[in-house]
Structure to design on (544 residues):
């Protein structure tokens, strides 16, 4: 061997040693993890198992604690995303594959030592409980980590894998419950974080949970559940709560009946046969039109009663809450259902939908001109879709807990897309509806200017640059900085206010809520549309 070859070998060995030294390590309950060091100095651990793979006999069982491992486990790649169809066009995963083996989480931390006791954020993705993944760029935790927050994203079971109830499942369960496996996955991740986050410099007693759309609905469910409500110190909800009739949980008996009907449709009435079906085939069957409806369940274990009833009784987690919605969640077509938005069509749609309540609706959502119809139809669609449930969550929490409640409306509209390619990737993702009126006529008027559902995610988590679809401007980055600073302050202190930010007043138990309008410049207003939500209260007959 020549001196040159020996030198190259030594150089390679030295390079490997230096690389290994750069990779951060953390010792958790199951063993030692080795993550990666990002250019910002943030440590990132990817694909960390927080439960056993829910496959085989563990399909449709509560998540089991992960097993220990020997040696050092590499945590440099995201785990597989949960089983799902490509429902939403703007979801872009960094996960290497899709698998039923999906219960992994990711951690971003700025900590350089143990027991630093930094605040922790655990974020649940959106996607209507049928899609989504913790590896998406828009949920990336590096930006918040740079602000001194240990940030965690996670995967949870979806659709038929996460929300299937069946009498046999209830019978075999030690908790006499079935369904809610996706929500139980989230709880298992919180338990794991509580036990292990100190190894990443996080404070196990300072855990804030957050999410958007189905993720926000999850936050409200975790606050309501006796399994999770004592694990958290704060909560953030972006558009959605498990409260109104279309989003609330269903009784266990109904969920079991739906499960039996699905099993019969696919000629697999026995539980053993259902568990033997390959994951891809099961997903295909459940994705057929009308085959399976994904809903949470009042199972007597994770949810002892309806979340709306739990919040009405003030039995939820007694923690600070920051929640809100976007200014134009979904377009007017979702209410007009493809009809041209003129006063005549609007009048008929309202009368057909609300019948003897139509006169009251016209007072609250007037439609005397085309522009007024577009505004009111957008409001009606958005309120019924997700705004009302979020408002109700905030309203009940501020009245029945001693903890501060902060409400917002995110109003910064996205800029134009860079190309037609962008148009193909900008669906109503993160959410629950899949279209806004299939019968849309040609030459319909433009949408109401505002922030659409799920458009706030990149702004509030500081991830605009990760989305190449839009022509981001200085105003976008300014709105993002303001929003993220409020979020970071809340995670750290339970109060969004801080230096250089407009005052965000708490919403007190009486009177109208204070709404913070999040935009390029932010301001606080007294909620202008309370009468609308009080009407929907009576319409839905939600517990007060």
């Amino acid at each position: 061997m020549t001196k040159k070859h020996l030198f190259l070998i030594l150089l390679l060995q030295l390079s490997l040693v230096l690389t290994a030294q750069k990779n951060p390590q953390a010792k958790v309950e199951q063993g030692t993890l080795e993550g990666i060091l990002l250019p910002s100095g943030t440590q990132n651990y990817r694909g960390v198992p927080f439960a056993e793979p829910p496959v085989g006999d563990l399909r449709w069982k509560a998540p089991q604690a992960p097993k220990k491992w020997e040696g050092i486990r590499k945590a440099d790649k995201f785990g597989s995303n949960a089983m799902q169809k490509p429902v939403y066009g703007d979801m872009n995963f960094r996960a290497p594959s899709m698998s039923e083996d999906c219960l992994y989480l990711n951690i971003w931390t700025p900590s350089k030592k143990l027991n630093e006791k930094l605040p922790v954020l655990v974020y649940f993705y959106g996607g209507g409980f049928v899609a989504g993944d913790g590896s998406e760029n828009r949920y990336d935790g590096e930006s918040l980590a740079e602000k001194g927050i240990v940030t965690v994203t996670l995967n949870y079971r979806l659709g038929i894998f996460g929300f299937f109830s069946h009498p046999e499942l209830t019978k075999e369960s030690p908790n006499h419950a079935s369904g809610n496996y996706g929500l139980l996955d989230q709880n298992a991740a919180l338990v794991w974080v509580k036990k292990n986050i100190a190894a990443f410099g996080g404070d196990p007693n300072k855990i804030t949970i957050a999410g958007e759309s189905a993720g926000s609905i999850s936050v409200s469910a975790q606050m309501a559940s006796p399994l999770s409500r004592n694990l958290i110190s704060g909560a953030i909800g972006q558009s959605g709560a498990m409260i109104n009739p279309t989003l609330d949980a269903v009784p266990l008996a109904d969920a079991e009946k739906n499960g039996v009907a699905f099993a019969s449709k696919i000629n697999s009435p026995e539980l053993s046969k259902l568990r033997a079906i390959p994951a891809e085939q099961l997903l295909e069957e459940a994705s057929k039109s009308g085959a399976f409806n994904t809903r949470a369940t009042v199972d007597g274990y994770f949810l002892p009663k309806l979340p709306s009833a739990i919040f009405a009784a003030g039995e939820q987690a007694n923690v600070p809450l920051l929640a809100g919605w976007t200014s134009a969640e979904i377009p007017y077509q979702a209410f007009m259902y493809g009809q041209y938005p003129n006063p005549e069509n609007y009048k008929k749609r309202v009368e057909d939908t609300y019948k003897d309540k139509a006169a009251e609706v016209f007072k609250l959502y007037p439609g005397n001109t085309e522009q007024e119809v577009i505004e009111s139809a957008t409001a009606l669609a958005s309120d019924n879709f997700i705004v009302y449930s979020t408002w109700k969550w905030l309203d009940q929490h501020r009245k029945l807990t001693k903890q501060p409640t902060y409400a917002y409306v995110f109003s910064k509209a996205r800029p134009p897309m860079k190309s037609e390619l962008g148009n193909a990737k900008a669906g109503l993702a993160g959410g629950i509806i899949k279209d806004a009126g299939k019968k849309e006529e040609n030459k319909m008027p433009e949408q109401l200017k505002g922030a659409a559902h799920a458009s706030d995610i990149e702004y509030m988590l500081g991830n605009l640059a990760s989305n190449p679809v839009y022509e981001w401007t200085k105003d976008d980055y300014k709105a993002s900085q303001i929003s993220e600073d409020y979020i970071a302050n809340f995670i750290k202190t339970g109060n969004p206010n801080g230096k250089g930010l407009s005052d965000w007043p708490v919403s007190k138990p009486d009177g109208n809520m204070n709404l913070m309008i999040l935009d390029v410049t932010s301001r606080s207003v007294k909620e202008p549309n309370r009468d609308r939500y009080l009407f929907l209260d009576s319409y839905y007959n939600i517990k007060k």
Summary: The longest strand covers residues 202-212. The first helix runs from residue 3 to 22. Residues 24 and 342 are 61 Å apart (CA to CA). Residues 14-21, 426-441 have pLDDT under 50 and may be disordered.
